[in-house]
Amino acid sequence: MSNLDRRPPARELGGLASTPAGPVLDLLRGKEVLLGESTRVRRLLPTLGRRLVGAWAFVDHYGPDDITSSAGMQVPPHPHTGLQTVSWLLEGEVHHRDSLGSDARIRPGELALMTAGRGIAHSEQSPAEHPRWLHGAQLWVALPGAHRDAAPDFAHHRRLPGFASDGLTATVLMGTLGGATSPGTAYTPLVGADLDLAAGADVELPLEPDFEYALLASSGSAGVEGTPLERGEMLYLGTGRRSVRLRGAEPSRLLLLGGEPFEERIVMWWNFVGRSGEEIAEYAERWNAEDARFGAVIGYDGDRLPAPALPPVPLRARGRER
């Protein structure tokens, strides 16, 4: 999925200086932005107060939207570098195409994991005949320096592991949780999991004390360590936790994101992750010149998405939090 902001701010992220040394409960409210022609999303990361959670660098939550009388999601071909995209659907269907020749229909409960590495292009669309509802999350993971120029890749995992306990049904997207390990390839220690809470559920979820964590309420509402979390909100939990207590005020879905604090400083602008402003400018120039670095998306009927103009000022380091 693309960041379609035509004036995206340049951000330098990473480093441990602003990572809490212990548990916190910081509520992060998203910013509503327009994605493509008709899909509105809540952008929860990066946001005021928080830039990264482990290597998770970008979180968009969309829906549930009734797209009966619309085209639904329509995101033209666009590029990525230096990151992985993690696509997670709760309702609906998305047609993914990329410059590797991948052509896949993504459905709820399936993991679409695209590794951009040195460069890839892809498009995302609701099929012409699509379900009524569209609801999901699009996530980016920053690649560490040793892998940021890796060969691009796309993996579609239709079945994912998980576990159930005390009114909780967990599905592990990335990493390991509760003894279940995702088939998705990760390049830093991290975890991503969908948590389906029944009404009245009261569960203690085990965590890694060396990780930092956040919880996004995809649907319904829940209590997290006694703090209410409503749909579309994200709660940052900090580090040093061996567990977190979750209570289902009603049937709800939470998205758990966590990982070891990302030590490297990165620059994220538009759909690129790099290490300097000069790199980002080169990526944008090469994409707009239709350079072979990114390839072409075959089968998409329409124009590519051009990179917006670079900001008129040099990049400024802002760290992990604003």
TrEMBL record:
Known cofactor(s): Fe cation
Keywords in alphabetical order: Iron, Metal-binding
Domain Pirin C-terminal, first and last residues per copy: 193-290
Note describing how the cofactor binds: Binds 1 Fe cation per subunit.
Ranges where the Pirin N-terminal domain occurs: 40-141
Binding site for Fe cation: H78, H80, H122, E124
CDD domains with a match to the protein in the record: cupin_pirin_C (cd02247), cupin_pirin_N (cd02909)
Listed Gene3D superfamilies: Jelly Rolls
MF terms in GO: metal ion binding
Protein family (similarity comment): Belongs to the pirin family.
Name of this protein: Pirin
The organism of origin for this protein: Geodermatophilus ruber
